[in-house]
Amino acid sequence: MEQKPTRRRVMLIYTGGTIGMMKNTQTGALEPLDFENLQHHVPELGELDYELHVHQFRPPIDSANISPAHWARLADIISENHDKEDGFVILHGTDTMAYTASALSFMLEGLDKPVVLTGSQLPIGVLRTDGKENLIGAIELAAAQDPTDGGPMAREVCVYFGSTLLRGNRSTKASAERFDAFRSYNLPPLATVGINVDWNRRDLLRRGPKATFAPRTKLDNSVIAITLFPGIRPAIVEHVLGMPDVRGIVLRTYGSGNAPQQPWLLSAIEGATQGGKVVVNVTQCDAGAVEMGLYATGNQLLRAGVVSGGDMTVECAVTKLMFLLGQGLTVDQVRKLMTTPLAGEVSL
User: Fold this and answer.
1) Could you give the residue numbers annotated as active site?
2) pLDDT per residue over 33-80, tens digit each?
3) In this structure, how many other beta carbons lie within 10 angstroms of the beta carbon of residue 82?
4) Neighbouring C-beta atoms of residue 187, cutoff 10 Å
5) Taking the complete model, does pTM exceed 0.90, yes or no?
6) Domains in the chain: ranges and CATH
7) At 302, phi and psi to the nearest 5?
C-alpha cells in the first residue's frame, strides 16, 4: 500500500500590523484579528494542502514599535520550532519589515529553511485588501520544495510582497501606497509569482555542507545613522560622532560614497574611528554601491578609517552593525566582517 505523503508544515507568526485587522460589521471599526481562528476569516486557506500552526503576539505590535527584543523573540520562536516546521511566515507591519528581515538574516545563522515576512497595505478585512494574496503566496513559497533535492526552495529570510519574493536583507519599503511596496534595487527578486512561480535559481542562497543552524540573539543597539546633506551643522555631527555611548555609525553619503571635503568632518570621523568606533559608508541612492576610491571626496573617508558598506541598504547596514557589535568581537573584526557577505547582503 502506497504511503500518503506527509503534508508540509508551516508556522505563521503574527506580530501585528495592518494585515491583521478585520472590519466589525456592526460598528464598522477595524479590530485585531484572532489569528488562531484564521481559516474562519480567510476560508481560502482551506484550499491549501498544508498543515498550518499559528503563534500570535499578544498584544499585537505596531511595527513602528518593533525593537531588538522583538527580533530576539522571533529568533527564539523559530529556533524552538525549527526542527518541527518546514517553513515560517511572519506577519508584520510594513514600516519596519525590512529592518526585521535584515536583522533575522544575521541572527538565524546557518538557516536552511524559509522564513518569509509579509504584510499588507490594506487590512485583510477590507474588500480590496492585498493581504489575502500576500498571505497565501507567502505560505506557498514557504512550503515550496526544490525538485532537485526535496529540500526547501528558499533557505533564507525573505520578504514577499506584491507578487515578488525578495531577499530580506536586500529589501526596502519604497512606497507608502502601492501594493508592490517593497523593492530590492541591487539584487533581482528570488521569485516572481504569476500563474506560475518563476524562481531565480541563480541568486537563491545555499549554505555550505558544514553549516549548522545556530541562532544568535544578542544585539548591541548603540548604533546611529547619519544622513549627510548640504549645510549640515558641524557641531551636531561632531557631537554625535563623539558620543561615548555610540559604538557604530552608518554614514549615508552622496552617490558612490562621497562626502564634503571639510576639515571639520574628516577630523570628527578620524576621532571616531581612532577612538574605536566603527563607521560604515552607505549611499543615499536607491541603487548602486559605495566605491570610496572612485573620487577624492570618497577616498578621504577611506583614509579616515571609514568602512565601505558596498551596496547594502541602510536597514541592512544598521542591523548588521548591531549584530556584529553584539558578538563580543574586536573592532578590527567588526570592520572586516562589515565588508564580508554573511547572508547574501552585499555584492562582492
Assistant:
1) 18
2) 777 766 677 888 888 999 999 999 988 888 899 999 999 999 999 999
3) 17
4) 18
5) yes
6) 8-203 (3.40.50.1170), 223-338 (3.40.50.40)
7) -60, -45
